[in-house]
Amino acid sequence: MTFKRSKTDIHTLPSVAKYRDKLRKNLTPAEAAFWNLVKNSQLDGRKFRRQHSIGNYIFDFYCPSEKLAIELDGQGHFVDHPALNDRTKREYAESHGIRVIRFENKRVFEDTQWVLDVIRNHFLPG
Q1: Residue 86 clears pLDDT 90, i.e. is over it
Q2: Residue ranges of the domains in the chain?
Q3: Does domain 14-121 fall into CATH 3.40.50.10420?
Q4: Residue 68: in which H helix or E strand, if any?
Q5: φ and ψ at 11, to 5 degrees?
Q6: What one-character-per-residue DSSP string does 38-55 give?
Q7: Closest-CA residue to 10 (of 119, 99, 98)
Q8: pLDDT in tens, 22-75
């Protein structure tokens, strides 16, 4: 049985599958640490996906029930002009009702509870 995609489905597009899989197999240390905190619905029963694509953009983590994307940024991320791409990526997600929050990698290691609390504060009420 084949799955027929809706023309409006923007999640996990086949055109970015290879790149998404490559990223999933090569997580950064911060991504691996974060994944260990949220995998298997460990964070308040919410399911997270890693390296989830929305349109042609790949987000580090995505919680479908909350329509919430999480991005982790390393030191190199803050040089040159990656913020231009980040803004476009965020605007694309937000135009589809998806909220995006960002953390510096070091926060995952140094302020784990704070990171989890910020994410919880972004969960939808109800």
Answers
A1: no
A2: 14-121
A3: no
A4: strand 68-73
A5: -95, 140
A6: HGGGTBTTB--EEEEEET
A7: 98
A8: 999 999 999 999 999 999 999 999 999 999 999 999 999 999 999 999 999 975
